[in-house]
Amino acid sequence: MMRRWVQRWDRREAPHSLAMIRILIAVVVVYDLSQIYLLDLVEPLYASVQDGGIGNVLAKKQMPMLYRWFPVEAETAWLSVGLAFGSAVLFGLGLLTRVSGIVFVIASANLAQILGPSDRAVDILLRNMVIVLSLSGSHRVWSIDALLRTRRWAGDGSLIPAWPRFVVVAQLFILYFSAGTQKVGLSWMPMGDWSALYIVLRDPAFSVLSDGALDRFYWVTQVGTLSTWIWEWMTPLAVYAWWCRDTRTSRGWLRSKLNAKNFWHRWVFVGMSFHIGTMLFMRLGMFPFGLLALYPAFFHPDEIRRFLRLRN
């Protein structure tokens, strides 16, 4: 049993899945941070009160890292955002990938220290994933590091440990199932007329649709509510389906049934559809984009290479 456990986590595969996640996370984070600059919110969010900011860094029990190293001035707020932005760019380009990844994690955590409410759940999630990617071989392809090392943007075809991709997949499984188990309010149930999505979409903080349009298509929101609830509660079955795809040569009625019906890809496709729907009909910032940036982990690198028609 221990031998099989070690073999499972010590598997090797091409780096394309992790490299795609690295690039997508960087794109999402860079775009999100650029909006802070374009909306002229760097100083209002991350400067001290005396410099026009809403984060009272001097009153904190522990000063944010950069404010301990540099003067409590507006320039330090710009430095804080600039460090996160620059390291995210380098991480996406794959230049000093492991170093730039860890620097981004520290810089992002520093912004969270300055103004806690600005640090959303998706920020924490992506920070954790960047830590995993920094410990992986995601820079072995589609990176400046690979170009400098092998003189090829596509790397030299060397394999990397697969465990970081498994960790990303495990994180998504935990995220979706825990989200499902917390949907216990009446609005998610028949007693509440499956009205959860309708209620959320009427919230002016999130909605992009008029109340009239929502009223006309109330039944669509009911279907969406029920579908979301069922899909998240089916996560344990998806975990087993993921395992079945990897052990398709083994026997088992349920294994063969799930593989024959392509349950795994169907479950992933529904998840992608949900996030695309939230992009179109809700204002949730970078949340749906950040989650979709992790979806390449659901696919074996060989699947991605076939999709992109890449050669060895």
Task: Write a concise keyword list for the protein shown above.
312 residues, mainly alpha, 2 domains, two-stranded antiparallel sheet, 17 helices, 2 strands, 64% helix, globular
Largest sheet: 2 strands, antiparallel
Radius of gyration in whole Å, from Cα?
22 Å
Please tell me the overall pLDDT.
Answer: 92
Number of domains: 2
Helix content: 55-70%
* Major beta sheet, strand line-up: 1-2
Question: Which parts are unreliable, with pLDDT below 50 for 5 consecutive residues or more?
Answer: none
Number of helices: 17
Number of strands: 2
User: Structural class given helices, strands, pairing?
Assistant: mainly alpha
Estimate the global geometry from the Cα principal axes.
globular
How would you characterize the overall build of this protein?
With about 300 residues, the protein is mostly helical. It folds into two domains: about 15-160, no CATH class; about 160-310, no CATH class. It contains 17 helices and two strands. A two-stranded antiparallel ribbon has the order 1-2. Helix 2 runs antiparallel to helix 5, helix 5 packs antiparallel against helix 6 and helix 9 packs across helix 12.
